[in-house]
Each structure stands twice: as structure tokens, then as C-alpha cells.
Specification:
The protein has 465 residues and is of the alpha/beta class. It folds into two domains: 239 residues, Rossmann fold (3-Layer(aba) Sandwich); 209 residues, Rossmann fold, CATH 3.40.50.2000. The chain is built from 16 helices and 16 strands. Strand 12, helix 11 and strand 13 form a beta-alpha-beta unit. Helix 10 runs parallel beside helix 11. The structure holds adenosine-5'-diphosphate (ADP) and 6-O-phosphono-alpha-D-glucopyranose. 6-O-phosphono-alpha-D-glucopyranose binds next to helix 1.
Length: 465
């Protein structure tokens, strides 16, 4: 069997199953996929050194090997904080107003991709399959091809693909996408992102696109583009639910709510997650109903993210101000309606919190998939399940159609959905949950990785020109 080499910017191995550490959908998914099949996980160590050397640190993890390199501060600034998180992330989440186009960012991004190709190349053996993750490495496949690598190389994009008319605002967008077409297979989280990509290839590249097979052909080179919606590690997550930690966390949160219905949000502190808009929706609900402080407790768990980037500092300040103002206006002397917590929890604790909450609020303005929505569903008590309120603009909405789907920009609609969830009869909650749970159980991360890798090994592209 061929060896798997996974490449991602962040190599985040939780110390022991269920430990805190892997925050962010990608890290959680890759730990699970590699744990099952073994191989090498290659990426940035998260450390900085004065000068880049490309020296690899190899470590044994939970059934696989990690190989990491240190980057120099200028690389981190220009590639990670710069092009990845100040240019591509906002643009790909439809926030063209936040996207910054600096030449140094683009140069830093290209340089780091070259560095990564140089460090990775010696690790690749003849039969290996290379699976690159996410927007940090769109040109990595091309760099490896330029160095003579002929192995199967795939890319999975964990974030949305923007509409063509937004993407064309990116300087050198043609070059970026042309580089991507050196991958054999490109995977997207949803059909919507896939269709945007195919539209771009046809319109801006003049590529020949076969919609049915997802084949994008330029000259005699072809790439397969398909949707592979990611899932959670269902069995592992359900096993966490059986732990004492999960049970204690459920009781701890549930007991502290003083009989109020608990609604929960769990999100990295990112402007794409729609957190201020969520508070605005709660504002409508609380100002429309006198006694709401005695009925609803909202717990928002939001670990800070990408703190060197200004827009993330701003979203944090905005949220602090809004929750403070909200609690000032709606608290009673002995009751506070929003608990706002800026820290990570281990996954077993999260399971317990999800189960204690009768409403899961997942209302991103734009999200590649959103695994929190799936974790919330998995953690529910089948005999008394909670209700998922889910943004139409999360990739997960394509699959989780039995959630209460909302437009997160429409505070009135979200407020009404929360009200509906608070009063939904048990029979309807069960009927919705059973359908949602079947999706989460049957389309999990193991199947996702198997499907992607089967496509990568199955559809040989035509040889390079
Ligand atoms: P993103 O990848 O944009 O962060 P997802 O919802 O797809 O969004 O994935 C987030 C992952 O990070 C989930 O698995 C979630 O459980 C985890 N996570 C988010 N916040 C925390 C936290 N405070 N503590 C532990 N894990 C967290
Ligand atoms: C999302 C991205 C991942 C990223 C994660 C956490 O899930 O798709 O690529 O790793 O967020 O972000 P960070 O910048 O901390 O790695």
C-alpha cells in the first residue's frame, strides 16, 4: 500500500485522544485520518528561527510521524499573517473589504511554498501519495512538479472558493489558479464552492470543463475537481461522550444555568463566524421579550485566533464591547445572560457542553464546512435532543438540511429561530435530530479521507506536457 504524506501549515497533534490542542477543523480532521492509516504529517513547527534552514524535526505521534520545519519571522509575517490570513482568508470568505494586497505578502507566500517543496521533496518515495491541505499551499503542487516529482498529488481546500467576480480582484489570480491545476485532484467542502471553481476555470482560464466528472483540462493536462464534504471522527467523538469528563462538564454547565434553556456557540474568534451578528440577534430576542433573562442562557466559547492580524484584534474588541453592553443592559443582579469564554477546552469537555445545551447556534457569515455544527448534533441525547440553528452560508448547510436554516445577516430571522428552538415540541426535535445524526454518523472523517484518497489514486491525470 502506498504511503500517505499529508502537508498542512499547522501540524497540531493533541497529546492523547481528546486532549486540548487541535483547534480548527483541519487539525482535528487530519489527526483522525492519519491516526487510522499512518504516514507522515509535514508542515510548519509553529516556531521561528533567525534564518530558515529547512532542517526537519521528525517525531513519532499517535500512529504516524510528524516532520516539521521552522520558519523565519519575515516568512511568518508575509506568508502566514500576510498572504494566507490578510489576503486569501478574507477574500475567500467574501470579505473583499478586509483583503489586503501587498507585493511582499505574495513574494513571501511563493518563497515559503518553495521552501516547503525543497524540504518535502527528499521525503517523498516512489509510491507515496501526497495530500496537501488548504489555502496556505495552493502553488505547492506546481513547485513539486517543477522539481520532478511525478507522484500523485492532491489538494483539499477547507475554506470556501469565492465567486469569480470576487476572485478576479486578486492580483495575479490567473497565476495562482494555473499553479493549482498541477494537482491531480482538488477537493472542495461543498458543491457551491466546487461550482465557483469550475466557473472560474472556464471563464478566466478558457479551460475545458466537464461538469459531470469534474475534469478541468488545459492542453493535455487534466485535474479532477470534486466536492468531498468533511465530517467528524464519529466513533472517537462518541467514545468521548462516555467519559467522566464529558458527564461532569454536562452537569457543571447544566447545573449552573438555573433552569434556563442553554444555547451554545463554539467558534474560533474569527470575523467569518458571525459573532457580533449573533449578539445582535439575541438583542432582538431579549428586547422583544421581557422575561428572557430568566429563560435563556447563551454560552459563547471563542478561543482567540491569529492575534497578530489587525482584523482579528478588531473583532475581539468588538465582541468584548458588545457582550459587555448586552450583559449590562439585560442582566439581573443574580443572572447574566451571556457567558463569554476565551479559551480552549478538551474535546470531552466540549461534548458535555454541547449536550447540556438545548440550542446549538452556528451562524457563520461564510464557512467552508463548520465541524462544530456536526459535533453539536453528535453530542445530543437521542431521547431529548437539542435544536441546531445553522447558517445557510456554511458548507454544512448543504448536508444538514433538517437544522433550522437561517440567514445570519437577518437578526430577526435568527431571533425567531432561537425562539422556535426554545419551544419546539419533543417529537419535532427528535424527528429533525434523527435525520441530522444519520448524516453526521454516515459521512464521517474516515470516509471523507477514504473517498478523497480513492479519487487521488484512481484517476490518473494525463502526463505533463
Ligand atoms: P474552523 O476550522 O474555521 O475553526 P470548524 O467549526 O470547522 O471551524 O472547526 C473548529 C474545530 O475546532 C472543531 O472541531 C471545534 O470543536 C474545535 N474548537 C473550537 N473552539 C474550541 C475550543 N474553545 N476548545 C477546543 N476546541 C475547539
Ligand atoms: C481553519 C483553516 C485551517 C486552520 C484553522 C486554524 O480551519 O481551514 O487551515 O489551521 O482554521 O487557524 P490557524 O491560522 O490557527 O491555523
Amino acid at each position: 500500500m502506498s504511503r500517505l504524506i499529508v502537508v498542512s501549515n499547522r501540524v497540531s497533534v493533541a497529546k492523547g485522544r481528546g486532549a486540548a490542542g487541535a483547534q480548527g477543523g483541519l487539525a482535528v480532521a487530519m489527526s483522525a485520518a492519519l491516526h487510522k492509516r499512518g504516514g507522515i504529517w509535514f508542515g510548519w513547527s509553529g516556531n521561528e528561527v533567525e534564518h530558515f534552514t529547512g532542517q526537519l524535526t521528525m517525531e513519532r505521534a499517535d500512529g504516524f510521524t510528524t516532520a516539521t520545519v521552522d520558519l523565519e519571522p519575515q516568512d511568518v509575517d508575509e506568508y502566514y499573517n500576510g498572504y494566507a490570513n490578510r489576503t486569501l482568508w478574507p477574500l475567500f470568505h467574501y470579505r473583499i473589504d478586509l483583503a489586503e494586497y501587498e507585493n511582499e505578502f505574495g513574494r513571501g507566500y511563493e518563497r515559503v511554498n518553495e521552501h516547503f517543496a525543497n524540504s518535502l521533496h527528499p521525503l517523498i518515495e516512489e509510491e507515496d501519495v501526497v495530500w496537501v491541505q488548504d489555502y496556505h499551499f495552493l502553488p505547492l503542487g506546481e513547485r513539486l512538479r517543477a522539481q520532478g516529482v511525478r507522484n500523485r498529488i492532491g489538494l483539499f481546500l477547507h475554506i470556501p472558493w469565492p465567486p469569480t467576480r470576487l476572485l478576479v480582484s486578486l492580483p495575479h489570480h490567473e497565476r495562482l489558479v494555473a499553479a493549482m491545476l498541477h494537482y491531480d485532484v482538488i477537493g472542495f467542502q461543498s458543491v457551491e464552492w466546487l461550482e465557483s471553481f469550475l466557473h472560474y476555470c472556464r471563464k478566466e482560464h478558457g479551460a475545458e470543463v466537464d461538469e459531470d466528472s469534474g475534469t478541468v483540462r488545459i492542453g493535455n493536462r487534466s485535474t479532477i475537481a470534486r466536492a468531498f464534504p468533511i465530517g467528524i471522527d464519529h466513533d472517537e467523538f462518541m467514545a468521548l461522550g462516555e467519559t467522566e469528563i464529558a458527564k461532569r462538564s454536562q452537569q457543571r454547565l447544566g447545573g449552573s444555568a438555573r433552569k434556563r434553556t442553554i444555547a451554545i456557540g463554539v467558534d474560533r474568534l474569527d470575523y467569518s463566524k458571525g459573532l457580533p451578528e449573533r449578539i445582535d440577534a439575541l438583542e432582538r430576542l431579549f428586547s422583544g421579550h421581557d422575561d428572557m433573562v430568566n429563560q435563556l442562557l447563551f454560552v459563547q466559547i471563542a478561543p482567540p485566533s491569529r492575534e497578530d492580524v489587525r482584523s482579528y484584534q478588531q473583532i475581539r474588541a468588538t465582541l468584548e464591547q458588545k457582550t459587555g453592553q448586552f450583559n449590562g443592559a439585560h442582566s439581573d443582579v443574580d443572572l447574566v445572560p451571556i457567558r463569554y469564554v476565551n479559551r480552549g477546552f478538551c474535546r470531552a469537555e466540549l461534548f458535555g457542553f454541547y449536550r447540556a445545551a438545548k440550542i446549538g447556534l452556528v451562524t457563520p457569515l461564510r464557512d467552508g464546512m463548520n465541524l462544530v455544527a456536526k459535533e453539536y448534533v453528535a453530542a445530543q441525547d437521542p431521547e431529548d435532543p437539542g435544536v441546531l440553528v445553522l447558517s445557510r452560508f456554511a458548507g454544512a448547510a448543504e448536508q444538514l438540511t433538517d437544522a433550522l436554516l437561517v440567514n445570519p445577516h437577518d437578526g430577526g430571522e435568527v431571533a425567531r429561530a432561537i425562539w422556535t428552538a426554545m419551544h419546539m415540541p419533543l417529537a419535532e426535535r427528535k424527528a429533525r435530530w434523527e435525520k441530522l445524526y444519520a448524516v453526521v454518523r454516515d459521512a464521517d472523517v474516515i470516509g471523507w479521507a477514504d473517498d478523497f484518497l480513492a479519487a487521488l489514486m484512481q484517476d490518473p491525470a494525463l502526463p505533463e506536457a
